[in-house]
Design a protein that fits this description.
The protein is built from 18 helices and no strands. The protein has 550 residues and is mostly helical. It binds heme-as. Heme-as binds next to helix 6, helix 9, helix 11, helix 13 and helix 14. It is found in: Membrane.
């Protein structure tokens, strides 16, 4: 068990994460019904306000706070208790991130920032909204540096040794996060804030979007990598085996430092201000960032097979039946992985230059992110929640909670399957994203979109409602395991942190030489971005004034 003081910091993070989750999912269910034309919001609540709150609170805030709860617990577990300075900075990080979150959320809820989670210029929010976002980033940096400090102390005490896999992966994620944030910090500080407060009249839209996507794509890996940490370090323990290959796992992670950043243009393939050469180069690099995910898939299949065969599974697929299906901690993560197969394939389609023309700005992309961040990532976090909270509170994860856990993950899977399939199909037919419901004046082509078996209003509404039900079950489990469930008394009742052993004997030391990876990443970023960004600045088109479209 980790120190009480460290547990307290982690629990606060989880508390904030699930408060954001509660509001965010409530906004989600409203949105599904409005988007379906079956609910009219009251005059004081706008669709875009709801959409912004949903995206920000779930995709940015729930994930960030949960990720830091997981990192803090895992780092304290694998490197030892935090010192007083690390604790202090972790608390400061929490409060600064929370302050930014509250500022941004209030401004969304009072209708001053309905700019969606990508806050594209020239839509202009209240200046304090951008200050709130900046504080969120600064807060995460403070928390990150606290964890880096803890890691450095450990390295000083264990000279020449490789760090435990969990710590290595956490530090990789943090390095990627800090390099990625430079883009969004630059645009928020030097473009959005002066523009929103009226210190400058106009904004260079293309530059602001490019700096945003320099950050926006690694942002999705900031969500994904903690899920991968759980897949690599927790799942083998649940299966009763070691990590399949320590060096493969570490290599996959460093590849994310290299390739997750110089690829942001694949979100801007239809934008006219960037020449095809730079878009093509970044598409090629995007195909490189798929490689570590394929390595992860290989590693997971190998882990499953080794475990199943160890338990007596024979034949080509006999091992599959031997997996611990009755353990909700495992089954939740397995389903999360299964969702990432179509989720990742969809990403490859999006990244393919020509195919992007078909899917860009359609509901297909909304379907894509619900089966990437909305299920592989979110459901892995749910699977972690089941044991992480009892581990931190010292309460039991009772049989009843285990059953409810199964109901929760099954309902989430069904809801997501219905809703995201409908979104993919509607997107292919041409239904746009980032808009409220529109029948285009009852144009027959637009009305036809909703006549399919999966793409009709009813399927989407059922999917959205099931998801909301599932979210409420999860909230019940969170509250029970946080405050109500009986305390664990016997050794069998104590919930453990299931961290797998990893054989580091063949792992090359250079994998942990961060300067190599940061150096190569910097070179790739310069190659991919220096010339196109300098063109955007030197040959800047007339800037745009702000628009309030809601
Ligand atoms: Fe994406 C748009 C390309 C991954 C999230 N993406 C988005 C947006 C979000 C998002 C939020 O190239 C919308 C942004 C917006 O609002 O505009 N994405 C990719 C690519 C990948 C990818 C190439 N995306 C993610 C992940 C996300 C995420 C992960 C969140 C966590 N995405 C794009 C592109 C766009 C885009 C374009 C812009 C589209 C546009 O036009 O606007 C890759 O990283 C995917 C690689 C993944 C794989 C899958 C490996 C499979 C594994 C599971 C193994 C399963 C097992 C279980 C072991 C190759 C690891 C076995 C089970 C059995 C049942 C057999």
């Amino acid at each position: 068990m980790i120190a009480y003081a460290d547990r307290k910091i982690a629990l606060w993070h989880i508390g904030v994460a699930y408060t954001a989750f509660l509001i965010g999912t409530l906004m989600g269910v409203l949105q599904v019904f409005v988007r379906n034309d079956s609910l009219a919001l009251p005059a004081w609540l706008d669709y875009y306000q709801v959409l912004t709150a949903h995206g920000v609170l779930l995709a940015l805030i729930y994930t960030t706070f949960f990720i830091f709860a997981f990192f803090i617990t895992g780092m304290s577990k694998s490197l030892g208790s935090f010192g007083p300075k690390v604790r202090l900075y972790s608390w400061i990080g929490l409060w600064v991130t929370l302050l930014g979150t509250v500022m941004a959320t209030v401004l969304i809820l009072i209708g001053e920032a309905s700019v969606l989670y990508t806050f594209y210029a020239p839509m202009q929010a209240n200046g304090f909204y951008y200050v709130g976002l900046a504080l969120v980033i600064v807060g995460t940096w403070i928390s990150s540096f606290a964890l880096v400090g803890h890691y450095l102390v450990w390295r000083r005490r264990n000279k020449g040794q490789l760090s435990p896999l969990f710590a290595f992966m956490t530090i990789t994620t943090i390095i990627m996060w800090i390099i990625a944030c430079l883009g969004v910090v630059a645009t928020v500080l030097f473009q959005y804030i002066p523009w929103a407060f009226g210190w400058t009249d106009t904004i260079n839209v293309e530059l602001s979007r490019s700096l945003f996507w320099y950050f926006g794509h690694p942002l999705v890996y900031f969500w994904l990598l903690p899920a991968y940490i759980a897949w690599y370090t927790i799942v083998p323990k649940l299966l009763g085996v070691k990590v399949f290959s320590d060096s493969l796992a570490r290599l996959a992670f460093v590849l994310f430092i290299l390739f997750s950043i110089p690829v942001g243009f694949h979100h801007q393939l239809t934008e006219p201000g960037i020449s095809n050469f730079w878009k093509f180069l970044q598409v090629v690099l995007t195909f490189m960032v798929i490689v570590p995910s394929l390595m992860t898939a290989f590693s997971m299949f190998a882990t499953f097979e080794i475990s199943g065969r160890k338990k007596g599974g024979t034949g080509l697929f006999g091992w599959f039946k031997k997996l611990p299906w009755k353990d909700v901690r495992f089954t939740s993560i397995f389903i999360a992985m299964a969702f990432f197969i179509p989720g990742g394939a969809g990403g490859i389609i999006n990244a393919s230059f020509q195919l992007n023309e078909v899917v860009h700005n359609t509901l297909w992309i909304v379907g894509h992110f619900h089966i990437t961040v909305g299920t592989p990532v979110a459901m892995t976090f749910m699977g972690l929640t089941f044991w992480l909270i009892p581990y931190l509170t010292g309460r039991r994860f009772t049989k009843r909670m285990q059953i409810l856990g199964f109901v929760q993950i099954i309902t989430w899977s069904i809801g997501m399957l219905l809703m995201s399939t409908a979104q993919h199909v509607l997107g292919l037919l041409g239904a746009p994203r980032r808009t409220a419901y529109s029948g285009y004046n009852n144009h027959p082509a637009a009305l036809e979109w909703f006549e399919g078996i999966v793409s009709n209003h009813v399927t989407m509404a059922i999917g959205g409602s099931i998801l909301f039900l599932s979210a409420m079950i999860l909230m019940y489990i969170v509250i029970m395991t946080m405050f109500v469930s009986p305390k664990a008394e016997t050794p069998e009742q104590i919930v453990e942190f299931p961290l797998a052993d990893s054989d580091m004997s063949n792992t090359p030391k250079w994998l942990e030489n961060w300067w190599i990876w940061i150096g190569i990443a910097a070179v790739l970023i310069v190659v991919a971005y220096a010339i196109p960004l300098s063109h955007m600045i030197q040959h800047a088109p007339p800037g745009s004034k702000g628009f309030i479209t809601w």
